[in-house]
Request: fold
Amino acid sequence: MGKIWANSGDSHALEPLDLWERALPARLAERAPRVERSDNRETVYVDGQIMRRDPLSFAEAIRPPGAEDVTIRLTDLDDQGVWGEVVFPSRGFWIHNMTDPELARASAAAYNDWAADTIIAASPRLVPAAITSVLDTDDAVAELARARDRGFQAVYMPATPPPDRPYNSEVWEPLWSLAEQSRTPLCFHIGTGMMPQVISRGPGGSVINYVETFFPGQRVVAHLVASGALDRHPGLRIFVAEAGAAWIPALADRMEEGYRQHDMFVRPKLSRSPREIVYSQVYTSFQHDPSALLAVSALGYDKVMWGSDYPHLEGTFPNTQKVLHELFDDVDPAVRDRVLGGAFAELFDVPPMPVQAT
Ligand code: MN
Reply:
């Protein structure tokens, strides 16, 4: 069996432990994301709060050497058959749990400088997503403009926004405008932002909590479509990463029904149907889901990207070729090419992928 090449809409870099300590003035650095390790646990502190405590075994399992070293990363990608990839942060996710605008602004800029110097500079195959503050729209707009100048093609957004800044709010309008105008996809990664990490500790809690991480991605789409944000900005593309894809047609059905049957309550009115907006402006990525391919072939929703989620446990490393063959060997080549490269190419510019062996 030949190697299947894929572009990946979802992967992560692991920032140096001292990224913010080195880049920020001391009064801010002490409140930036910080990690402490004990014998068997790793604890993340942000702005004096304990954000997460994991067994060290989990922390180590999601950190192959390529997570931190971009040269090793590119070797891993070649080995796995991943060509281009969107690179999300890891520790940088915690910036969206901050409540101090100055700290968030400075921490995001420090992350972006690091990512430009180490990831963008390393290879045109790597597409890191820049971080902006979500506490202040002027800060977000300024950092998006700066990130574009530094070569970023994408911006990462938290799936759950601050409670006083929901994604259907007009406060975001300048960011939607600049993202549209600069053709910068806004990439919402699930499991991030101001949501509780643990919803259930009862029986089945692990799977329940895993499922819970994907609901905020659905809320993002509902807010941006129903509020008219995507309708007002037809050139704005959004991407919900790591949440699968087959829910999109079902969500579009739900919005169509609500929009039509509750017509007397609906505002604003949209110039296009919710389905039309979702099917043309909302992209998704999945790792393992066979249903994602049916969304393309049977349900006509084709903004679907595959993602390795390298180097995380939810992803496919180090078994990517096995997963890709299981998913794609019996699939129409047009659907395969769409999911492994075509949808990605609508959002991100990377060098041409090697020709598929089959
Ligand atoms: Mn991911």
Notes: Residues 105 and 133 are 5 Å apart (CA to CA). Residues 10, 12, 88, 189, 241-242, 309, 312 surround manganese (II) ion (CB under 6 Å). The chain has one domain: 6-17+65-347. The longest strand covers residues 186-193.
